[in-house]
Amino acid sequence: MINVAAAAVLLAGCAAQPGDAANAAPTAAGTRPALCDTAQPARLQPFPFNKDAKLRDQTIGAGRGGGIPGYTGGIATFEDLSAAELAWLIDERFIDPYETQNAAPSAWEIFQFLCGHTGVRAAGYVVSIDRPDYRTSLEDISSPSIDVALRKDAEPFCADADETTFDGRLECFWD
Q1: Which of 102, 101, 107 is nearest to 43 (CA)?
Q2: Which positions carry the signal peptide feature in this UniProt record (predicted)?
Q3: What value does the mean pLDDT of the chain take?
Q4: Number of domains within the chain
Q5: What's residue 56's pLDDT?
C-alpha cells in the first residue's frame, strides 16, 4: 500500500531514468508508469543502493504483510506491489533491476510483466540496513483473477516458479 505522505506524486509522461524521481511517491494504482516504456537501466556494479530504508519500508508497506509485523532476522516482507510502486523502487535505487531471487526473473523482468498486466502485483522482502546484504528482493507475482490473455503470458513467465496457481487466480512463487 502506498504511503502518500511519504513523498510527492511522480509526474506522468516524463521519461524516467533511475534516480530522477527525487524520492517521489509512486503514482496511483492502475496508472502506467513512464518507466515501463524505457530501456532497461544500465547494470551498475556495485549497485549504489539508496540507504533510506525507512522511506523504502514506509512507502511499500514492508513489515506489515504476511502476518509478522516488522523485521524478523533482518528481513521484512511486503506484498501487493503495483507496477507504479516497483517503478519507484527502481527509479530511487531501492532495488537493482538485475537482482534475482533464486530462479525468479530479474526485478526488471517482473516490472515489465506488471507493466503489461495492471492487475498483477508483486511481493517479496526487504533486508535491513543493518545487514551487509541490504536489498529489496521479489519472489512472487499474483492476481486475484486470471483471464485467457494473462494465463497465456503467465504460463511461460512462471515456468521456473517453485509454486504456481492458475485456477481462478494467478500466483507464481520462486523460492
Answers
A1: 107
A2: 1-21
A3: 86
A4: 1
A5: 97
Is residue 44 included in any domain, yes or no?
no
Strand pairing category for 170-173 and 163-165 = antiparallel
| Residues 136-157: tens digit of each pLDDT | 999 999 999 999 999 999 999 9
Assigned domain for 40 exists: no
- Please state, in angstroms and as integers, the Cα–Cα distance from residue 25 to each residue in 12, 87, 147, 174, following that order: 12, 10, 30, 27
Instruction: Tell me whether residue 13 is in a domain.
Output: yes
The number of beta carbons lying within 10 Å of the beta carbon of residue 154 is 22
- What sign has the CA pseudo-torsion 100, 106, 111, 117? negative
End-to-end CA distance of the chain: 23
Cell of 136: 529489496
Is the pTM here over 0.90, yes or no?
no
